[in-house]
Structure prediction request, 256 residues.
Amino acid sequence: MNNRNSGLKRDDETMDTLFHGSLSILQKKKGYRFSVDSPLLAHFATLRKGERVVDLGTGSGVIAMILALRFPETKIAEVEIQQELADMAERNIALNGLGDRIRVHPGDVKGIRETFAPKSFDAAVFNPPYRRLNSGKINPNYERAVARHEITGTIDDFLAAARYLLKDYGRAYVIYPASRGVQLIAGMRRHGMEPKKIRIVYSDSLSGAVFILAEGVKGAGEEVEIMPPLFIYGSDGGYSDEMDRMLGGASLAIPS
Prediction:
């Protein structure tokens, strides 16, 4: 580890890379670790020069850092309720030299009015917890449980926060399980964000849908673009060409 990295990595963490080493990511060995859904969302979002972006429930900050790499003239605010993950996100920012472009705001999406003024951002991204509290076994690791189950916030909480934070015609980018796609689209419309782009993600060409990626625009009119499907794996069992470009040499799991 070089001098810049010394003191940033803890004994209970790993240091992983994306884009053939362009990004380095600290993660817990046994706590929450990001999955393939994070890069999927980060590559679905489209940002413009000079825009302010908020990443709600940032975790280790991987989505924000991919966005910073893809769109070098944006400013990004990260919101994270778990203090230990917020600290890790801070160290990941320092590790990648992104302190002038990304800032962490420890806090709860349900209390977002205490952190930001209304209409402060041009775009929001979020990969919210997607399992209901009463559905399935909750992971005994608290970090993983909060990331996957609606313990500290539901999809409605995240959409309400996005509606408050976004300027008129601001954009929300979300990834959600395909099986709960109706809840996502209905929730967007309920919170004043019209779905404008939708892309369905499949494990492979023979599988059912795994995720739905959606862009909602605050205050926009009707009419939605259904984009071509995205396949994670190709016919040979390895990553599809598109997925391989997204991950840049990394190997990630589909969250269960």
Confidence is low (pLDDT under 50) at residues 138-151. The chain is about 25% helix and 25% strand. The first helix runs from residue 37 to 44.
